[in-house]
Amino acid sequence: MRRRHERGLTLIEIMVSIAILGIIVLGTLAMLTSGFRLITLSNWHNKSTFNAQSAVEQALMVRNTNPAATGIVLTFGDGSTVSAPGEIRQTVETVNNAASDVWFFQPKN
Fold it and tell me: What is the pTM of this model?
């Protein structure tokens, strides 16, 4: 039993304090780990998107000479149309299982 003039904490109080502190620390570590994992995944997605953009730019530098490419036709609300010869193409770039799928129009000469 505790006497009135004694100071300090009991063993139970110390154990409860350590348990509460442990729960707080583990929760914080779990959040940090999850955050670092999301940052890494975001970096992979950024790299794959950059690679896909580079592939599109490189493909657009070489003009489409495919005779089978018909092109696209845009129809506006007033009935007017605009057509452009070329083809819709796709490129997929993957960095560490993070894929970026890009569709683009490549004009025909």
Answer: 0.50
